[in-house]
Write a structure and sequence with these properties.
The chain is α/β, with parallel strands linked by helices. 38% of the residues lie in helices and 15% in strands. It is built from 24 helices and 20 strands. Strands 7-8-9-10-11-12-13-14-16-15 form a 10-stranded mixed sheet, sandwiched between helices. Strands 1, 2, 3, 4, 5 and 6 form a 6-stranded parallel sheet that branches. Strands 17-18 form a two-stranded antiparallel sheet. The longest helix has 23 residues, at 212-234.
Length: 651
């Protein structure tokens, strides 16, 4: 065994291989050495597809295997009994432990065949396979369900599993790194089926590959560490070959890990995020850029009077407890149900966010149309939208962070996904507190938000109750998605009774383009007149709320409580930000009515401007995409000015 281990590190044939070769043996059960095979993947977000191609490359580098990479929806599953090469499966697990859409037929066939008496226990006796699962342990009992089920069902039909199923865990770090770890273990397992390349051959096969040796060294180091730990714990020597994939999935002890691994950090940076420390981020909003050019502000400018060019969009937690179907970040951020990472101090986060934001504002100098006076104003941050991505309220020191922002004279608009009721209860006064109310009932909320918590509905309702007890301004944020939640007006009305929010924002979903993580299309986005109609129906059911404001370009409308914000016939939805800061410094108890201001006429529901500030210059892009004429005709039929598709696509 000592010789075997030494051979492994040196890349030489094992003792078993040498003996087998001398005897003329070819492999297990006298089979010939395997040189071909397939990598079959089932993916929802594209992770499995990427990993499948990486696995094929690593197999070629290490064993000279020529593996064909195929999606499970393009593979004729009836040919599975005829496979004679090695077959690797890279599969993800989707909502409620179900397979991805593209893999549903394959998994159904496997399930039915495993329990079909006509197939029997030797139906797949010639199949040699291994499974790499892509999942996240935050999903509890549904963690890597598809990978585990596939392994079990194939073995029931007589298939030979050449390596234990590997349960890749996004929560433990990069899946790419875990795949490399797994291939290091496969080197031990596959020596009975195919011959590792000689060092010279491997060098040729790896030509053009970067970092292979460095990663291989890491795998060896991890294997050696696990072996040493087992020796220390049991007092008995453990052979490297006896270490299983479960051991490779073990979490390193000691200090807490950073929230962002190299892959996630890189993905977020590509999307324009400035990463602050280990778990926070800031990004320049498109409405900030728009108002720097004098082309109008966002809906919060129309509804609440913020200056969009002085607003910083940030988050102290890039992690979230949901994976919403309409997430405009395409699920590139981490997920979690509790804080388990290294934690940066709030003063560092605030300082870093302001510095990055100011830097991005300064970079707008020289951009055509940008006004110098707006640049000067924008550098002096006045508002912070804690809604960039993730779940800000997960950050354990969210109160200290909000207080520090207030100390800098910066207002706080904090958005939560309504899964952390205790954090809402303990939250210090913020300028405006939102909860995302993405559906009117339990089933729809589960389908849209795809929450990690099994008791998500109970948490959701409790968050609404906690919101009701807040004295500062509170908001329900409703995102309408065609064919998902637009028919749930009565159920939404029932939820309004629980939280009694000051305001109800209703907005059409933002279409972010096609991606593997969501089935939404441009057709999922409602027209502005449909958003208005939804608000009118809700007001008819809740007569204590009125139609206060609208911002057509954002497909957004605002409902407000009449008893608090309608004084005579004038709405008072805008905020006196200086008064809010003064009230915070006073240490006295105060409420939403203490810092409200009258809403200007151009922002009121039904105004000719439809929420566009007349002091700004309207800019309309020329769009020459197919179907524009039809869209304009359709929109004009409802009395709208602009192409509906243009409005949708620009949000």
């Amino acid at each position: 065994k000592t010789c075997q281990n030494l051979s492994l590190w040196l890349g030489l044939p094992s003792v078993k291989e040498v003996v087998s070769f001398a005897r003329g043996e070819r492999g297990r059960n006298g089979s010939r050495d395997i040189t071909t095979g397939k990598v079959l993947y089932g993916t929802q977000k594209g992770n499995s597809r990427r990993l499948a191609h990486k696995l094929a490359h690593l197999a070629k580098v290490n064993f000279g295997l020529e593996l064909e990479v195929l999606s499970l929806d393009g593979y004729e599953v009836e040919k599975l009994p005829e496979e004679r090469g090695l077959v690797f499966f890279v599969v993800s697990t989707y909502t409620d432990g179900t397979p991805p859409e593209a893999a549903k037929w394959f998994f159904r066939w496997v399930e039915e065949s495993a329990h079909d008496f006509r197939c029997g226990a030797d139906f797949l006796k010639d199949l040699k396979f291994a499974v790499f699962g892509c999942g996240n342990s935050q999903y509890g009992r549904n963690f890597n369900t598809c990978a585990k089920d596939l392994s079990e069902k194939l073995r029931l039909m007589g298939a030979e599993e050449v390596a234990d199923v590997f349960l890749g865990d996004e929560d433990k770090g990069s899946l790419d790194t875990q795949l490399v770890d797994w291939t290091g273990l496969l080197r031990l397992r596959l020596q009975d089926y195919c011959r590792p390349l000689e060092p010279a051959q491997a060098a040729v096969a790896a030509a053009g590959a970067h970092g292979s040796k460095r990663k291989s060294d890491k795998v060896k180091a991890k294997l050696e560490r696990i072996r040493a730990e087992k020796l220390s714990a049991s007092g008995q020597s453990t052979d490297i070959e006896d270490i299983g994939t479960k051991d490779l999935n073990e979490v390193e002890g000691g200090e807490k890990p950073e929230m962002l691994n190299h892959t996630v950090r890189g993905n977020l940076k590509k999307q324009g995020y400035k990463i602050i420390g280990t778990h926070s981020g800031v990004k320049l909003c498109r409405w900030t850029k728009s108002m720097l050019r004098g082309r109008g502000g966002c809906y919060k400018h129309s509804f609440y009077g913020i200056e969009s060019h002085r607003c910083m969009e940030a988050t102290p937690s890039l992690a979230c407890a949901n994976k919403c179907v309409f997430c405009w970040r395409h699920h590139t951020n981490p997920i979690g149900k509790e804080w388990k990472w290294k934690m940066d101090p709030p003063e560092d986060i605030v300082t870093g966010a302001i510095q990055y934001h100011r830097g991005m504002i300064k970079e707008m100098r020289g951009v055509p149309g940008v006004k110098p006076e707006r640049i000067a104003e924008g550098i002096a941050v006045k508002h912070c939208a804690l809604s960039l991505v993730g779940e800000p309220i997960m950050y354990p020191k969210i109160n200290e962070l909000c207080n520090r922002l207030h100390g800098e004279g910066i207002s706080t608009f904090l958005v939560t996904n309504a899964q952390f009721p205790d954090a809402i209860e303990k939250l210090v006064p913020v300028t405006q507190l939102y909860v995302s109310v993405d559906a009117g009932n339990k089933e729809s909320l589960k389908a849209i938000d795809r929450p990690l918590f099994s008791d998500f509905w109970e948490r959701f309702l409790l968050c609404l109750q906690k919101l009701r007890d807040k004295r500062q301004r509170t908001v329900y944020r409703l995102t309408l998605v065609n064919d998902w939640n637009v028919e749930e007006v009565e159920q939404y009305a029932s939820l309004v009774d629980i939280g009694k929010p000051d305001f109800i924002e209703i907005k059409g979903v933002t279409y972010c383009g096609t991606n593997d993580a969501s089935s939404l299309t441009i057709k999922s986005v409602p027209y502005h007149h449909e958003v208005r109609a939804f608000g009118e129906k809700l007001c008819a059911l809740k007569e204590d709320y009125g139609l206060a404001c609208e911002h057509e370009h954002s497909l957004s409308i605002l409902l407000a409580r009449k008893d608090r914000f309608l004084k005579g016939d004038k709405w008072h939805t805008w905020i006196d930000y200086d008064k809010f800061q003064s009230l915070c410094r006073s240490g006295k108890t105060f409420g939403a009515e203490d810092y409200m201001v009258e809403t200007p006429s151009w922002a009121i529901w039904g105004a000719e401007e439809k929420g566009f500030d007349p002091n700004e210059t309207r800019f309309r892009k020329k769009r020459n995409h197919p179907g524009k004429a039809a869209s304009v005709a359709h929109q004009n039929g409802h009395g709208q000015e602009e192409s509906a598709l243009a409005i949708k696509a620009s949000n």
